[in-house]
Write a structure and sequence with these properties.
Elements: H1 2-34, H2 38-50, H3 52-63, H4 67-70, H5 94-97, H6 102-111, E1 117-126, H7 127-140, E2 145-150, H8 157-171, E3 175-181, H9 192-198, E4 202-206, E5 221-222, E6 226-229, E7 233-237, E8 257-262, H10 265-281, E9 300-307, H11 315-326, E10 330-334, H12 342-353, E11 357-363, H13 369-383, E12 388-392, E13 401-404, E14 408-412, H14 418-423, E15 424-432, H15 434-449, E16 452-454, H16 456-460, H17 464-474
Parallel strand pairs: 2-3, 3-4, 5-15, 10-11, 11-12
Antiparallel strand pairs: 1-8, 1-9, 2-6, 6-7, 7-8, 9-15, 10-13, 12-16, 13-14, 14-15
Length: 480
């Protein structure tokens, strides 16, 4: 033992060097063999080589995608996996939406795990003043089951009202399941999960992490927003549960958009929730209670699209590229965090150069200052190609909306930024409906009417210090 201690005391630098070389070699090989984005591979190799031991440790914690290997396995839920060779179903969308969208439907058939289903009804809800009362009314009418999934569930007036409705539903015999992201649950202290647990509502935290190996998942989020009541009424979109989206005396009201849906697509919302719930708790939500057949409620074709750092990592990215490619007249986009990658920037540029009118609305007031800086660092890349970028006036707007040619719409939880497109678990929905598209267009046009337009001249007019700051922050945009 004494000899071993003597050897360690004398040769510890050599041991550290050997461990560093071994760890760095393993990290570099793993990055080169597993990363699909060459820029990500080069970046991680550079970090590891220039900071041998620390870089390898950082790669082990934040660079390895552990979720992709097992999260989507069928035994953890009932959601089928996307299959690039899956044949499209027979629903002919070209008659209702236009011939250019026939290829868009085929893309969705092969990208999403879910088929495009007809017979749905969609109702847009503007802000918490419309969305939260509608959600609470649905919860109060529940007779059998409630499934709620969200990123942020604050313990404030809005959150407590929602929690009380869930507790009351459980007390009258309704089966209630609530899934909150582990990071999002910490946005308010004490968290709402304590109140729900005391009310005996079955609540779980998605990717709950702490010390140990679980720390490797702390950069991943479940950003999905789902509420399904009795398998018949669903809610989805971009809204978290927090009072800042409701009108309060003396306080500015943040804006957002949510959607109430009825019809067969509700089953897809519930299947997505059940998949995430099984992954988190190992409880399978089975039987007719959790697998009812939703009633036909309207005429809107719709489909859910899951994306995340697993087998669905490119789903929303592919859907967006497809929609930009088929656009013929106009594209309207609203995003609070607009940080598209190079393929999306190229697709936006190509659409604008083809003569498609591309309007992009971003908030003038942003709740994430660093993201706002990064956004401005790359706005010139879309402005110079003919896209019109508008900075909305008034309160912060958290809406994530997109519509193409007055027919196709994309709604849900995804932002156009690296976190949503690669790190977050997201849930979006594509809709083929002129009425919903018209509602989104009117909303975006109303913002444009009072917005200021960013041009190359306005961007260049910023001071050098501000532009440099924006570029430096932009370098960290994948992790903001």
């Amino acid at each position: 033992m004494a000899r071993l201690q003597l050897l360690l005391a004398e040769y510890w630098p050599h041991l550290v060097f050997l461990i560093s070389v071994a760890a760095s070699t393993a990290a570099v090989i793993h990055a080169a063999m597993t990363k699909h984005d060459v820029r990500a591979a080069i970046g991680w190799v550079g970090v590891v080589l220039f900071s041998p031991l620390l870089g390898a440790l950082l790669y082990f914690v934040a660079g390895i995608n552990r979720i992709r290997q097992h999260r989507g396995t069928p035994e953890l839920g009932e959601t089928p996996e996307p299959d690039g060779a899956r044949q499209p179903d027979r629903l002919d969308i070209s008659l209702a939406a236009g011939p250019q969208f026939a290829s868009m439907k085929v893309l969705g058939d092969r990208v999403s795990a879910f088929p495009l289903v007809d017979g749905n009804r969609v109702q847009p809800l503007a802000g918490g003043d419309e969305a939260y009362p509608a959600m609470i009314r649905a919860i109060e009418s529940a007779q059998e089951s409630i499934a709620l999934q969200t990123y942020i569930f604050d313990r404030d007036d809005a959150g407590r009202a929602m929690a009380q409705a869930l507790i009351a539903a459980r007390e009258r015999g309704v089966k209630v399941r609530v899934l909150v992201d582990a990071v999002g649950a910490k946005y308010s202290q004490p968290p709402i999960t304590g109140m729900l647990s005391r009310g005996k509502v079955r609540t779980a935290l998605f990717l709950s992490s702490g010390l140990g190996l679980r720390v490797a998942y702390t950069n991943l989020r479940s950003h999905r927003k789902i509420l399904v009541v009795d398998g018949q009424v669903g809610f989805t979109g971009g809204m978290n549960i927090r009072a800042s989206f409701t009108t309060r005396p003396g306080r500015e009201t943040s804006r957002d958009t949510h959607f109430q849906v009825e019809g067969p697509v509700v089953a897809q919302l519930l299947a997505s929730f059940a998949h995430d719930w099984a992954f988190t708790t190992r409880e399978r939500l089975e039987g007719e209670l959790w697998r009812p057949t939703p009633r036909i409620a309207g005429t809107v074709p719709a489909r859910c699209v899951q994306s995340g750092p697993d087998r669905t990592i490119a789903s929303t990215h592919d859907m967006l590229l497809g929609a930009l490619a088929v656009a013929q007249r106009n594209i309207r986009i609203q995003s609070p965090y607009f940080l598209p990658d190079l393929p999306l920037i190229a697709a936006l540029a190509t659409a604008a150069r083809r003569g498609v009118q591309v309007d992009i609305v971003i908030p003038g007031k942003n709740n994430l200052r660093l993201v706002n800086y990064a956004m401005y660092a790359q706005l010139d890349q879309v402005v110079r190609t003919g896209c019109r970028v508008w900075v909305a006036a008034g309160a912060f707007d958290h809406s994530k909306l997109m519509t193409v040619d007055g027919t196709w719409s994309y709604i849900g939880s995804s932002n156009l930024d690296p976190r949503s497109l690669r790190l977050n678990f997201e849930l979006d929905m594509e809709l083929y409906d002129a009425a919903t598209a018209a509602w989104i267009e009117q909303r975006i046009d109303a913002l444009i009417a009072t917005a200021s337009r960013e041009t190359l001249a306005t961007l260049r007019a910023q001071s050098f210090a501000r532009r440099l700051r924006n570029k430096v922050i932009w370098l960290a945009s994948p992790y903001l």
